[in-house]
Amino acid sequence: MSSSQAIEALREAFTSLPGVGPKSAQRMAYHLLERDRKAAKSIADALQHALDTIKHCRRCNNLSETELCSLCASPKRKHSLLCVVETPADLEAIELAGSYNGCYFVLMGTISPLDGIGPDNIGVDRLMQVLDEFDIEEVILATNLTAEGETTAEFLTELLSGKDIKLSRIARGVPVGGELEYIDRNTVARAINDRQELYKP
């Protein structure tokens, strides 16, 4: 245990990051304080700036500095096509594949009963508002093929199947248990292009 409460607080803050345990957090804290205070200041400033300026796009729920993000504001996108993803990283993975020209909705999570996360804890209500507000012809469910992603897709399928909207699911080009941000571009592109129809009004 460090004698400095400030160091302990910094180490504790680093452990809140995904994949960072106590030892890694300690190494990062000491590295920044001992050897690279300039980088530490840069990180702190960038994080504070992001906290002050980043909000959620009013249409797609993605992180954005403006009320409407650049993708939602673009006249080149097919606004009647909506791809539902779990996270901003998943959106980026599909964009990098270069095979999709519609719009998105970012749930910012998945349904996970074991973790106490239900539909009310992610962006389901906002998704329903978007579907009511905009003229959407097809919804592509592009949640990950994990247990939580499948649970979320099944819930959304049941929720949306009564609407006058074509509903499809990304194809199994993405391996079961895979997460979009870690999968190669060609596989992501194939999954989007070979999506499976779940419901057609």
Average pLDDT number: 91
Largest sheet: 5 strands, mixed
Roughly how many Å is the radius of gyration?
20 Å
**CATH top level class name of the largest domain:** Alpha Beta
The end-to-end distance, rounded to whole angstroms, is 62 Å
Which CATH architecture of the largest domain would you pick? 3-Layer(aba) Sandwich
Q: What overall geometry do the principal axes of the alpha carbons give? A: elongated
What is the helical fraction, as a range of percent? 40-55%
Which class do the helix and strand fractions yield?
alpha/beta
Order of helices and strands: HHHEEHEHEHEHEHE
Query: How many domain regions?
Result: 2
Q: Give, in spatial order, the strands making up the sheet with the most strands.
A: 4-3-5-6-7
Strand fraction equals 5-15%
CATH topology of the largest domain: Dna Topoisomerase Vi A Subunit, Chain: A, domain 2
Count of individual helical segments: 8
Strand segment tally: 7
